[in-house]
Specification:
This protein is an alpha+beta fold. It folds into 2 domains: about 190 residues, Immunoglobulin-like, CATH 2.60.40; about 160 residues, Immunoglobulin-like (Sandwich).
Length: about 500
């Protein structure tokens, strides 16, 4: 009889383990055990290093000429956590380190800001626009409060220099540990009903603009990044490093098979004309009009003659022109509300306002308050003087500077109504009555608009808006019926 094999035992000698741990080199990411994430994405430069901890990473290929990068991914219930490692020389130099978590919308289009001034800044803003719709900042101080060389005397400086020359350095000098500055940011929450932080996305499309039909490139992108900036106090030294991240909110499960099922309810919207005409048209869309970017938008367009005229119905069904377009409207305000930047530690005002003396700032503030609410400063001389000098019929304040662009993404055109509506079949296959048959429309056009996964979703957040509309037009002779219906794309 063969002896049973003995199972191996796992034995750990605590004394030997402690001795090995004491003799081993310490791990450079000492504070990583505080984070409950599985992945650490590292972004390095000559003087800075950013470590971003996340539970998920994704390979991102933003441009065709750039290699793919592995970026951290965060959801709407996560925290953006990590740490910044400074160069030892920067850590002992007096200065300030700013770590900012920001979200921006980049829009590049040849039709944006056509009326801008013909200056270098105007041309740059007309070609490319970057709107910062969210920013949260934490700051760290580096070095001592004052310069160490300025605080010591000349004799001490000479003595230290001579002493350092006489000192013989050992063959193995321990490397100075890089300071570890942790950061943690909350994902911003919506401040009002209907708001939703837009996900990371990038849409690049080609088109033709102008009378000559020149080709153009349109780029619309929502990006998030961690920006670290170190600024010296006694000098103009500056170091910057960006760490892009991906924000993907948790959405409900969407089955691919369910995208092709017929909607349970439909909504009929009538089309309107400028004058009374002997026929009516309507478009039918799913209710509610909310569609995923990976699906499509089904629709029905019908018409009915009023009063009933078979001759007119045949002419409309043969010669009417039906056009269904998907419109996208991008609206960006240049000054986002400070409500959505709760943790910003520095002011974004211009240098003219920041360098002005207190009295000038007070007068400027008083002048602004006098224009908006003169009753609050009527007891002050400057406020009352401005209020009395202002005309009664003064113009409205200027519209905030920004971007407003409406573009047709795709259009479906059909000549005539190719189908005749029919009553839905019942379980008993009963023939429809004459009244049911006469109540049906005279013509029907059925179609769908395909969407793309790379297109921008509907956005409504802090001065940034991306809206979609279904615009339908039915043209017959000199008469045209139109309607524009807002839809939501996620």
């Amino acid at each position: 009889m063969l002896p049973t094999p003995r199972r191996p035992r796992l034995h750990v000698d605590t004394d030997e383990a402690r001795a090995d741990a004491a003799s081993s080199t310490p791990f450079s990411r000492g504070a990583q055990d505080k984070f409950s994430h599985f992945h650490t994405s590292v972004f390095r430069s000559n003087q800075l290093e950013i470590q971003v901890h996340s539970s998920t990473v994704r390979s991102s290929h933003k441009h065709t000429y750039e290699p793919s990068k592995t970026l951290p991914v965060f959801g709407d219930h996560d925290k953006v956590e990590g740490a910044v490692l400074l160069d030892p020389q920067l850590s002992v130099t007096p200065g300030r380190l700013l770590v900012t978590f920001e979200g921006a919308f980049v829009y590049l289009s040849p039709d944006v800001l056509e009326d801008a001034d013909e200056t270098s800044a105007g041309r740059a803003s007309r070609d490319k626009y970057r709107h910062l719709f969210f920013a949260s900042t934490v700051s760290f101080q580096t070095g001592d409060g004052g310069s160490p060389r300025a605080s010591m005397s000349l004799r001490e400086a000479i003595t230290n220099s001579v002493r350092s020359k006489r000192t013989v350095s050992p063959p193995e000098t321990p490397v100075t540990a890089r300071p570890h500055l942790p950061f943690s940011f909350e994902i911003p929450r919506p401040g009002r009903q209907g708001e939703e932080l837009p996900p990371t996305c990038c849409n690049v499309s080609l088109g033709v603009v102008g009378v000559r039909g020149r080709s153009c490139v349109e780029r619309a992108e929502v990006e998030y990044k961690i920006v670290t900036v170190w600024e010296g106090v006694d000098s103009d030294d500056r170091a910057r490093l960006d760490a892009p991240i991906i924000y993907q909110p948790d959405t409900d499960f969407q089955s691919l098979d369910g995208l092709y099922l017929e909607p349970e309810s439909w909504l009929e919207i009538p089309l309107r004309s400028d004058r009374p005409i002997p026929f009516k048209c309507a478009i039918t869309l799913p209710d509610p009009p909310t569609f995923p970017r990976s699906g499509y938008i089904p629709f029905f367009v019908v018409f009915t003659t009023k009063p009933r005229s078979p001759t007119l119905a045949r002419e409309i069904a043969a010669d009417a022109t039906i056009a269904i377009s998907l419109l996208r409207q991008v609206t960006v305000l240049s000054r986002p509300s400070p409500l959505y930047s709760p943790n910003v530690a520095y002011s974004s005002a211009s240098s003219d306002d920041s360098d002005a003396p207190p009295m000038t700032t007070k007068r400027r503030l008083l002048r602004r308050r006098g224009k908006s609410s003169p009753s609050l400063v009527s007891d002050l001389k400057s406020g009352s003087r401005l209020y009395n000098a202002a005309p009664l019929n003064k113009p409205l304040p200027p519209i905030p500077h920004g971007v407003s662009d409406t573009r047709s993404l795709q259009t479906d055109v059909c000549i005539g109504f190719p189908k005749r509506p029919r009553n839905p079949s019942t379980s008993h296959h009963r023939h429809p009555s004459l009244e049911e048959h006469s109540s049906l429309p005279d013509g029907l056009y059925k179609g769908k608009l395909r969407l793309e996964k790379t297109m921008l979703p509907s956005i409504d957040w802090a001065g940034l808006g991306v809206k979609y509309f279904i615009e339908v037009s039915v043209l017959f002779g000199q008469d045209e019926l139109r309607a524009r219906i807002p839809v939501r794309i996620f």
